[in-house]
Design a protein that fits this description.
By secondary structure, the chain is α+β, with helices and mostly antiparallel strands. It contains 23 helices and 22 strands. Helix 10 runs antiparallel to helix 20 (about 570-585). The chain is elongated, with a radius of gyration of 31 Å. It is found in: Cell membrane; Membrane. InterPro entries: Beta-lactam/transpept (IPR050515), Beta-lactam/transpept-like (IPR012338), PBP_dimer (IPR005311), PBP_dimer_sf (IPR036138), PCN-bd_Tpept (IPR001460), Penicillin-binding_protein_2 (IPR017790). It comes from Flavobacterium jumunjinense. One of its GO terms (molecular function) is serine-type D-Ala-D-Ala carboxypeptidase activity. It is an enzyme of class 3 (hydrolase).
Length: about 650
């Protein structure tokens, strides 16, 4: 019996292998489709990407037809290379380069020879396509932007590279994919599903009909439409207000976390990154490293928050019971601390909680911060308790929005100061600048807008997000999950009153809007750059945060204007106008609007450019090239 075991095993194994081979080669016909079968040609049908709308149903992004010339190197036979080059208006060197690249990818599979032809170019090729065996036209859809704003929100479409193809089997050479913005974050939702037809060829490589009568063919499925939380009219208005300025605006709906406006300035027309000039235009935008039009300042720019941070300092002071509303501190144009150092303040007198807010008294909030840290037996404990409160407002961490980019900002903890002061000896007065939004504290405009949403909601927020609705799908639950701050609800009322008084009798009284009660806070942040080992002092950043109306707020906003002097010179008027535009739909403060539309900060930015160009002259060439290409694009549009 033992002698029979081995032969039986061999016989059974052989039967299994033969049966499997028979199944794969005879019964399972899909194996032929997966192989590089010369008798079967795959033809893809690319779906339209999903359309993108704003919260009010306005169409923002649609599609337009485009055509790629594809090549299968192995099938090129006896073509007139010179005629093809003349037809497509390309040089012979380009032809050779693209064929070599296609061969490296695969001699049997199609590669993009020439991308994004318009209708006229495609028609010229189609007339003579039969003469160029191995070449064929592939229809695709490119984005068609209905507006000129929001490039930082949308992102753009580009061809997949080899790394993406190797990583994701869905994509083939020449396929398009979303990069940056919602195009990237919602790529799988927007792209749809490719259709495919399998065509049978004879020995002469001629198409003789569908393979197996189309049994394995599939239809394409259009991508799902997106409805953004964005209010287009507000986005456009913010973009216009920021012309000739640099900075960011973020506006949220406090009760939902929906992003109403996400403005980054300077910006660019999203149509620049569509069509044959996309690569060149992107390169020029990328090389402009001074103005940084590709840099989304609303999500990525990390600034010292300045005086708006006093809002959190005050709330923590109340929560930790180191102050009450009646606690006061004397201010004599500044705050003395740490070995004779002195922090200037424009206030003078005796500040309590309310007027400390609406007059933005440095002495008051430095005192509150110092008392908060010194309440605990050691400064390390005090800073960590303080940092925990601050982070409950969404600061110091990337907030997890549905956009593929963002920065965490910085909220220092005891570990921060253990590194800075390895020998110890630090205390509340050593790091006093944190209390007024300077020091090691950094925030993004999105985080400050979210901070104001927390105050408007009296203690909670929802994760900010840019997509309101996906056709046929539901939103991620994280966008409908409430986050609670560490501050008790009762402490928000005195803070909200103080912020309302900022407009009524405080640092923003010149920005009042009739019959609209806005709660806000001005801010100014010191601004320096270091180039070539030397530090240059520049004009301060202008900052403003607000929400409105005071009762049942519908908008919270943060505005940063780089080199904008002080809070209510640029950021304050822009925030006020944005709030009035959203709530009332029209502007009564025409004086503010006219000033924001006409005034420019380009002279301040020119100073920065001159400093950098002296050190890096090649960047001047990049900017000049960008200007030329934008002008050319505008001529094409017109």
């Amino acid at each position: 019996m033992r002698k029979l075991v081995l032969p039986i095993i061999i016989i059974i194994t052989s039967i299994i292998l033969i049966a499997r081979i028979f199944y794969l080669q005879v019964i399972d016909e899909t194996l032929k489709l997966k192989s590089e079968n010369n008798a079967i040609k795959k033809v893809f049908d690319f779906p339209e990407r999903g359309y993108i709308y704003d919260r009010n149903g306005k169409l923002l992004v649609a599609n337009q037809p485009s055509y790629d010339i594809m090549v299968i190197p192995r099938e090129i036979k006896n073509i007139d290379t010179l005629e093809l080059c003349n037809l497509l208006k390309i040089k012979k060197e380009y032809f050779i380069k693209k064929i070599k690249k296609a061969i490296v990818y695969s001699p049997r599979l199609p590669s993009v020879f020439m991308s994004q032809l318009n209708k006229r170019e495609y028609a010229s090729f189609q007339e003579k396509e039969r003469k160029f065996e191995g070449f064929y036209a592939q229809k695709r859809a490119l984005r068609d932007y209905q507006i000129q704003e929001g490039a930082n929100v949308f992102g753009f479409i580009t061809q997949v590279n080899e790394a993406i193809i190797n990583q994701n089997p869905y994509y083939n050479s020449g396929d398009l994919i979303g990069k940056q913005g919602v195009e990237q974050e919602y790529e799988e939702v927007l792209r749809g599903v490719k259709g495919i037809k399998y065509l049978l060829r004879d020995k002469h490589n001629k198409i003789i009909g569908p393979y197996k009568e189309g049994k394995f063919d599939t239809l394409s499925k259009q991508g799902n439409d997106l409805t953004l939380t964005l209010d287009y009219e507000l986005q456009k208005y913010g973009t216009d207000l920021m012309i000739n300025k640099r900075g960011g605006i973020v506006a949220l709906e406090p009760k939902t976390g929906e992003i109403l406006a996400l403005v980054s300035a300077p910006t660019y027309d999203p149509a620049l990154l569509v069509g044959r000039q996309r690569s060149k235009n992107y390169t020029n935008l990328y090389r402009d490293s001074i103005a940084n039009p590709l840099f989304d300042r609303g999500l990525l720019a990390q600034y010292p928050p300045g005086s708006p941070f006093k809002i959190i300092t005050g709330l923590i002071g109340l929560q930790e019971e180191v102050i009450t509303e009646e606690t006061g501190f004397s201010c004599n144009h500044g705050f003395s601390y740490g070995g004779g150092r002195f922090m200037k303040c424009h206030d003078a007198g005796y500040s309590r909680f309310n007027n400390g807010i609406y007059l933005s008294c440095n002495t008051y909030f430095c005192s509150v911060y110092r008392n908060t840290i010194d309440k605990f037996k050691n400064s390390s404990k005090g800073v960590d308790v303080w940092a925990n409160h601050v982070k409950s407002f969404g600061l110091g961490d990337y907030m997890g929005t549905d956009l593929p980019t963002g920065k965490k900002g910085n909220i220092p903890t005891s570990k921060t100061y253990e590194r800075i002061y390895p020998n110890g000896g630090w205390k509340g007065s050593t790091i006093i600048s944190n209390g007024i939004g300077q020091g090691e504290v950094l925030t993004t405009p999105l985080q400050l807008a979210n901070m104001m949403a927390v105050v408007a909601n009296k203690g909670y927020f929802y994760t900010p997000h840019i997509v309101k609705k996906i056709k046929g799908k539901t939103l991620d639950k994280k966008f409908t999950t409430k986050h609670i701050s560490t501050i008790d609800t009762k402490y928000f009322d005195p803070m909200i009153q103080g912020l309302a008084d900022v407009y009524r009798i405080g640092t923003a009284k010149s920005l009042q809007v009739k019959d609209l009660e806005i709660c806000g806070k001005t801010g100014t942040a010191e601004n320096k750059i270091r180039v070539g080992g030397k530090t240059y002092q520049l004009k301060d950043h202008s900052i403003f945060v607000a929400f409105a109306p005071k009762e049942n707020p519908t908008i919270a906003i943060a505005v940063f204007v780089e080199n904008g002097y002080w809070g209510n010179r640029y950021a304050g008027p822009i925030a006020t106008l944005m709030v009035e535009k959203y709530i009332n739909g029209e502007i009564t403060r025409k004086d503010l609007e006219k000033r924001m539309f006409t005034e420019s900060l380009e002279s301040e930015y020119k100073k920065i450019e001159n400093i950098i160009y002296q050190r890096f002259p090649q960047q001047q060439k990049a900017k000049d090239s960008l200007t030329t290409n934008i002008a050319r694009k505008e001529e094409e549009v017109n």
